[in-house]
Amino acid sequence: MGRTVVVLGGGISGLAASYHLSRAPTAPKVVLVEGGERLGGWIRSVRGPGGAVFELGPRGIRPAGARGARTLLLVSELGLASEVLPVRGDHPAARNRFLYAGGALHALPAGLRGLLRPSPPFSKPLLWAGLRDLTAPQSRDPDETVHSFAERRLGPEVAALAADSLCRGVFAGSSQELSVRSCFPSLFQAEQAHRSVLLGLLLGTGQSSQPDSALIRQARAERWSQWSLRGGLEMLPQALTTHLTERGVTVLRGHPACGLSLQAGRWKVSLGDSCLEADHVISALPASVLSKLLPAEAAPLARVLGTIRAVSVAVVNLQYQGAQLPVQHCIPQYTLGHWRKLESAAHFLAIHRLPLTLAGASYDGVAVNDCIESGRQAAARALGLELDP
């Protein structure tokens, strides 16, 4: 009898995990369980009366880095390359960036002139922030808030204006609460490796080689800023769902998981009136949700996961008639010390040899690329496979 892996959560992380499980050399039986009636999680696209596409979740995906390249590779494998709508590097939307501060909209400085002359809302040329970074001493602290990091390396004005706006735009959180190590690991690692953020970003941190495909090469050649899909980003989870059903993956919708229990080394996944048995479970649920499903013997893990929470306040603006999404369990907040929570969870899973793998936005990145990579890594761990470089 072959192995069975149950994936909890039909968002992009769970779909990606199921995708990679189904394509393994010796694929297990895969069951994807989603509590709602639709798959795709926060990726949702709708059409207005005139045919325009409205994104109710992410509006674009960045191609940068190894994770961005792997997402483009996935797009190619799903046959969606011809549907990609890129924003090239020379497009006005890529070249023009704005910051709303002090009740006004300001164009962000660009080029050499922007570095040498003051550009509102900044009172000094940004060159001074760069010089400060090159001369600031390296921190020995294992973590600090984004605000503290930016203020120490780039000055109080950059911290108050740019860093805080970035945190609110990406995480809907405060720079004075979010962790730089967890929210912006490339910045943290740049300082650790080269004592300077600017030098670290310029020289790189020795990352492994990236995957290659025609679409990836096109994105690099045209310097894509970001990309979407002709029918909206929801085409991606829809294509993944079609692929999974064609590969024989069982997809259960409208079956919220009610509890997990271990019996003789196998999981029993309660779905209310029915249950599933699995050799391994990949949870792509929000950490706070999973914490309520774990059995008593995993109480220490449940306590750790229960502290990883989403934004506590949300303001919803109805952009399209009938467009309604729940606000709970949305963007996780990687607060100071988030990395210790992840280490604690990994340690508990390892020493108790629990056949459970964590995936999704609660842990290592909230962007679409991060969630897809999280699913890929979870599938590899569940199968005991070495990850591709």
Structure description:
With 389 residues, the chain is α/β, with parallel strands linked by helices. It is 39% helix and 14% strand. The chain has helices at 12-22, 65-77, 92-95, 111-116, 126-135, 146-154, 156-171, 180-183, 185-194, 197-203, 214-221, 235-246, 287-291, 299-305, 338-351, 368-383, and strands spanning 4-8, 29-33, 45-47, 53-55, 84-87, 98-101, 104-107, 226-229, 250-252, 259-263, 266-270, 275-278, 280-283, 356-358. The strands form five sheets. It has a five-stranded parallel beta sheet, with helices on one face. A three-stranded antiparallel beta sheet has the order 10-11-12, with no helix packed on it. A hairpin with a 4-residue loop joins strand 11 (266-270) and strand 12 (275-278). Helix 1 packs parallel to helix 12 (235-246) and helix 2 packs across helix 16. The longest helix has 16 residues, at 156-171. 37% of the residues are buried.
